[in-house]
Amino acid sequence: MAATIISGTQISKDIRQDIQQEVEKMKAQGAQPGLAVVLVGEDPASQVYVRNKEKTCHDLGYYSEVHRLSAETSQEELLALVDTLNNQDNIHGILVQLPLPKHIEEKAVIDAISPIKDVDGFHPINVGNLVIGDDSLLPCTPAGVIEMIKRTGIDLSGKHAVVIGRSNIVGKPVSLLLQRENATVTMCHSRTANMKELTQQADVLVVAIGRANFVDASFIKPGAVVIDVGMNRLENGKLAGDVDFESAKEVSGPITPVPGGVGPMTITMLMQNTLVAARRAYGLN
Q1: 228 has catalytic annotation
Q2: What are the tens digits of pLDDT across the range 165-187?
Q3: Dihedral of CA 147/268/30/136: which sign?
Q4: Options 97, 172, 221, 242, the catalytic residue
Q5: Is 53 a residue of the active site?
Q6: 3-state DSSP call for residue 6?
Q7: Annotated catalytic residue within 118, 120, 228, 242
Q8: Are 222 and 248 in contact (CB under 8 A)?
């Protein structure tokens, strides 16, 4: 039986329609979500991401600012801009595009963003609230992963979820969100001795390690949900995930493709976070 494809493109489209309706209601009340994106330097991938965010803001009816700064911008200048945006009433979300030039300390910049405008969900206060289960703005990619799993109709409660990868951006937060849904979570990483033995027990397998086609069918329990967070550029120029899709789909249950899987969800959840932050700022929650 062929595996069901979880289309991040379609799920993202459905969520954006809901967001658009919400924004129209807010505008009728004299309110509008606002997102500021800051790009330092000329990183080509970052430029693409920023253009996509700018377009999405326009499509959904958000107020949008994009601050494109030269690679020579000092840390003090960047922090001064963040401070200005923290105090700007029509901006509800601030995103400083990573990576930053080497002379700027990422942590100092993340820490400077107001937690109530931290729509990336990286500020230590938001991360701490995530850990203890309090309300917070959630990291976008992990939140998108949970949304995708839920939309397959699967109840995560009591399921065994295995996460490969322990990054602060995906692996750690997605494991916490899976626990919040009452899944039993095992985390694997580069030092895990018996990885395949563990992944073969997973009802839900989330892979986020940045190694093209690393997970094949032999890692997967028949019928398991497989979420591939990887995005790798092969030598032939094509994109590939961390999961060998052609092999995996012969064994798995619902599975995400690359591209068209988790990728589209990240910007959509960023927009969702900005909407939540705006509603709170306007007292509409």
Answers
A1: no
A2: 999 999 999 999 999 999 999 99
A3: positive
A4: 97
A5: yes
A6: coil
A7: 120
A8: no
